[in-house]
């Protein structure tokens, strides 16, 4: 998931690509080895900087897809049509190639496995990436905190981490998909945007006082957050992370 990069006083580190995995026809998961990486929390992101031979440089921000694991940083990147950075990262950067990373960034949109409250994750498209880090952190910690994931995506072919989420669902995580463009033939809901009825039926009730994390395009995030608050959720427990088109 890409955001507009935010300047900071963090250190740029050289990151070497060690592994690539396709998630969808236009999204790939990239694993980097980053010497000196200080670690991160689920939900944080990094700035990625590319520098050309003539000195021109540009940067974007991407969510971290997996919990901290030594000096490894895992990003899942959706290619943006006519983008300046994502096409290179998803199609051209070879294993062994290098970029610069700065981070981790962010302290509000994070989940810690010691938190006892039920967790509600609501993802729109590539907004699943930081939420997947939370899912994976929960599994790694052996946490039994109740967790529900509501994942809105255009079509089944565009789901990130499809096999892994299928396994998580059989392992006790409550996962519901909402399709906006093309739904499976056996889906009685059909293809439409997530709405009040969906959240009222599938989100945790407000009186459970869940920690809610909502991530996706700006319009999606605003709609979901406003609806959760209208359903009685404490605004202080609804944490949002949004993104929009980038160059």
UniProtKB/TrEMBL annotation:
Cofactor(s) in the UniProt record: FAD
FAD-binding FR-type domain boundaries? 10-111
The alphabetical list of record keywords is: 2Fe-2S, Iron, Iron-sulfur, Metal-binding
Q: Does the record carry Lipid metabolism as a key word?
A: no
Q: Which GO terms describe its molecular function?
A: 2 iron, 2 sulfur cluster binding; oxidoreductase activity
Q: Which InterPro entries match?
A: Cbr1-like_FAD-bd_dom (IPR008333), FAD-bd_FR_type (IPR017927), FNR_nucleotide-bd (IPR039261), MRET (IPR050415), OxRdtase_FAD/NAD-bd (IPR001433), Riboflavin_synthase-like_b-brl (IPR017938)
Per the record, the domain of life is Bacteria
Name of the protein: Ferredoxin-NADP reductase
């Amino acid at each position: 998931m890409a955001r507009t990069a935010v300047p900071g006083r963090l250190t740029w580190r050289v990151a070497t690509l060690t592994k690539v995995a396709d998630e969808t026809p236009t999204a790939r998961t990239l694993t980097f080895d980053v010497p000196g990486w200080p670690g991160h929390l689920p939900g944080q992101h990094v700035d990625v900087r590319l520098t050309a031979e003539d000195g021109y440089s540009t940067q974007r921000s991407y969510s971290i897809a997996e919990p901290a694991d030594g000096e490894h940083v895992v990003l899942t990147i959706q290619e943006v049509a006519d983008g300046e950075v994502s096409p290179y990262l998803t199609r051209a950067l070879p294993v062994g190639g290098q970029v610069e990373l700065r981070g981790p960034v962010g302290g509000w949109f994070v989940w810690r496995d010691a938190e006892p409250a039920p967790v509600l994750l609501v993802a729109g498209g590539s907004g699943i990436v930081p939420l997947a880090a939370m899912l994976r952190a929960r599994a790694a910690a052996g946490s039994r905190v109740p967790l529900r994931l509501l994942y809105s995506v255009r079509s089944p072919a565009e789901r990130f981490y499809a096999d892994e989420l299928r396994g998580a669902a059989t392992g006790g995580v409550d996962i519901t998909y909402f399709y906006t463009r093309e739904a499976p033939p056996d889906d009685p809901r059909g293809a439409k945007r997530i709405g009040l009825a969906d959240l009222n039926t599938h989100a945790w009730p407000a009186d459970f006082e869940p920690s809610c994390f909502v991530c996706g395009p700006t319009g999606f995030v605003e709609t979901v957050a406003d609806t959760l608050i209208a359903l009685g959720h404490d605004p202080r427990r609804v944490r949002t992370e949004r993104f929009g088109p980038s160059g």
